[in-house]
Amino acid sequence: MHFYERYICKSLLLPFLIITFSIVGIAWIIQSIRYLEIVLNNGAKIADFAKLTSYLIPLLLFIVLPISLFFTVYYTYRKLMHDREITALYSFGVSKIAIVRIFTIFSIFAMLLHYFVSIYLLPVSTNAFKKLRFTIDQNSIINLIQFNTFISKINGITIYIEKKDQDNLLQNIFIHSSQNPEKDITFVASSGKFYNTDSRLKLILNNGSKLELNHADKRYSLVKFDKYSMDSFGDTAVAQSISKQDPYALGIAELLFSNSFPVDETPKFRAQGHFRLLWPLTSISIVMSMLFFLTQHEQVRTQGMKPTIYAFTSLLVIIASALALYTLGHSNQKYYILMYLLNIIIPLIVAIRLYSSTKNRLLHG
């Protein structure tokens, strides 16, 4: 690698890191505010809150990497032009293609990083997020318990526990649940104890009764028991979201080829699989298009705002096209072909145009 190639790559690296983590940091703060409710209402630990929100970072990286790469290349190229460094390279016989190739190689490394996030980090972090979110919700009841006080902070559940012995045995328990829209359930027990098994919270009740009120016929049923196991606490909507398959929690191969999805949801999972493959590839199209417009008029004082406007317009057009085809792909898989062609044709056309302009420049001195 030549000295100027190493220099340009180093000039790209630091802005890329700063811009990427700045955008991700802002998005992370905005997203984290949504989960403050876990700390405030569910009694979760600050460490759990930090760990939970950290699992959002791979998803944010997956979304913003093409955009941060665009701003990195734009900033670095304009800075090198403003400092006359690219003009100096031209005077030493370095071609426009050679300079564009350096930016393209850096973009390819950024794309490979993006694929690492898409293929590995994203499903791992999403599964960890869902598991921890469910565990926090399940354990929130323990953190919220106030003895000798009625507690109704957990959605659909009211709890009263008189006291707790030294061996964590709970005394004189009352639990009323209205989580099931078809019936209300009330438990009264002389004692009980919490157990955490397989990340699920269970309460074993001893010597009590279970009273059910069916809303449809207004009939009561009473059952007495010596021992009863309760294993459903917290927000049932959260529990349902954990069991529901999340496209981000699955690998790309599973998204594209698995036949285990419901028939009506299969197009959504297929589209997500193609998007996870194509969104990193879009970075190359974005960078190549921008470089084409920026290299058309390379005298900083004379190029004005046109190349910048064209570069940002190309960014918006490519992103909008990718998202539109991704949406259309939910209904017709033929649009996936257009998504792949978009990311092949654009770099190819730009490379041909750059080669032609460089050849013409050499022929005309």
TrEMBL record:
Protein location = Cell membrane
Protein source organism: Candidatus Bandiella euplotis
- Protein's name according to its UniProt entry: ABC transporter permease
**Where would you find the membrane-spanning parts of this chain?**
12-35, 55-77, 98-122, 277-295, 307-329, 335-355
Could you tell me which PANTHER family the record lists for this protein? SLR0882 PROTEIN-RELATED, YJGP_YJGQ FAMILY PERMEASE
Name the keywords, alphabetized: Cell membrane, Membrane, Transmembrane, Transmembrane helix
Query: What topology does it adopt in the membrane?
Result: Multi-pass membrane protein
Q: Which Pfam families match?
A: LptF_LptG
Main localization is: membrane
